[in-house]
Amino acid sequence: MQNLDTDVVIVGSGIVGATLACALLQQGIQVTLIEAKPLPTTTDKKTKPEQQIDPIDPRTFALTRASERILTKLGLWNLIMSQGVSPFREIHVWDANGSGEIHFDSATLVEPNLGYIVEQSVLQSALTTRLAEFKTLTYYRPAKVQYFHLTTNQAAMQVYLDNNQQLTTRLLVGAEGAHSPTRHLAGIPYKLLDHGQQAIVATVQTEYPHQETAWQRFLITGPLAFLPLANPYTSSIVWSIDTPLAQHLMKLDKIDFHQELEQAFAAKLGKIIASSERVAFPLQSRYVLNYVQPRLALVGDAAHTILPLAGQGLNLGLLDAAALSEVILTAQAQRKDFGRYQELRRYERWRKSDNLAMLKAMDSFKYLFSTSSLPLSWARHVGLSFVDVATPIKQLIMRQAMGLSNHLPSLAQS
Ligand SMILES: Cc1cc2nc3c(=O)[nH]c(=O)nc-3n(C[C@H](O)[C@H](O)[C@H](O)COP(=O)(O)OP(=O)(O)OC[C@H]3O[C@@H](n4cnc5c(N)ncnc54)[C@H](O)[C@@H]3O)c2cc1C
């Protein structure tokens, strides 16, 4: 068995883990990245490795201004923009049951847009390209962690991989998403709320252009969102719906699915002309009790899983990556050991309250919009209509949605 000494080991090179790696490598910290999935292969020989995409992940993300700033400062934003992404300038939310509706426009904030819709494959390929520029990165892929333990003097974490590699590190970071094995092996407890729903994701072509607007219709069965992509007639849909109904929709042929979708969306963008393959994601909220232990930290979905209602999960994860890298670099600059519990607690205190507030807001939002009880339905109608005319409240919500209102890490500041 070989042994490698490395400053930080990050397990999971999804968008959050890879972003954290870039933030640390850019400042001269040695990073070892471990990813379970092999690099996707393609039959197109002309495609460069960095352009290879994961064909089974059709998710798109509504990225906030805070995320845009993080990705810009890490040299990723130009790589992302060069692949074609769509800004969204407006958000329209309306309630299928009553007459409540709310409309957000970037012009009222004197901003060019409210954010960007970026496909998962675009983000992941930009990260792969950027990571390849760091000569100090050690990358094990495909590989998994089998187990780990603190050294007897607690000055390092000893990590054992399934490829016989052994690593000694000052900090082990779990970034493997919602089902994080690092969290599991560390025995960190969490509370799970299974919503009994699934989100159906697909790309669709519509009769009318999307007008660079993110549309969301709240049905009693769950919300349906149309997010604008680079082509003006193409949107990414996220349709959250009870599991039995989702299973039924997944089985429909395209013609029947298009009809159901058109009806659920009140044909806001006209007919559905074409659609991609559909993928369904189970909807769960996961509240993790501790983000850190001595020489161990969790980031992204490993630390918190929230409903995709307002498209905030990845944005929170990117803020985790920015905050943890800041805590590490500050400790390093002060000649402190960044893997010590006292240092890592700064990261936990910083991010846990923000993430929990968003998790609770999304769960309450879902409850408010998925009930037909008269008082709540009335509150929903009055609430939406009130917020729609109350400019200061609307501006506050928009700033929050753009990720601009909390104590931001310096990577997310302008
Ligand atoms: C339908 C849907 C729509 C969404 N829309 C939005 C949106 O608009 N905006 C937004 O901000 N968020 C959105 N989210 C949330 C977002 O998808 C997640 O918050 C985000 O992808 C989490 O990123 P991550 O890197 O933490 O985890 P993941 O994306 O889950 O990545 C984890 C990585 O770890 C790897 N891995 C797993 N196990 C191991 C192991 N044992 N060893 C090594 N590697 C491992 C995986 O292969 C993967 O590469 C949405 C979620 C869903 C389900």
Which features characterize this protein?
414 residues, alpha+beta, FAD/NAD(P)-binding domain, nine-stranded mixed beta sheet, 11 helices, 20 strands, binds flavin-adenine dinucleotide
Question: What's the layout of helices and strands?
Answer:
Blueprint: E1 2-11, H1 15-25, E2 31-34, E3 60-63, H2 65-73, H3 77-81, E4 86-88, E5 90-95, E6 101-105, E7 115-119, H4 120-131, E8 137-140, E9 145-150, E10 157-161, E11 165-174, H5 181-185, E12 190-206, E13 213-219, E14 222-228, E15 234-242, H6 243-251, H7 254-264, E16 272-275, E17 279-288, E18 292-293, E19 296-298, E20 304-305, H8 313-333, H9 341-369, H10 374-389, H11 391-401
Parallel strand pairs: 1-2, 1-11, 2-8, 5-13, 11-19
Antiparallel strand pairs: 3-7, 4-7, 5-6, 9-10, 10-11, 12-15, 12-16, 12-17, 13-14, 14-15, 17-20, 18-19
Helix pairs in contact: 1-4, 1-8, 8-9
Flavin-adenine dinucleotide binds next to helix 1, strand 3, strand 12 and helix 8.
Write a compact overview of the structure shown.
With 414 residues, this protein is of the alpha+beta class.
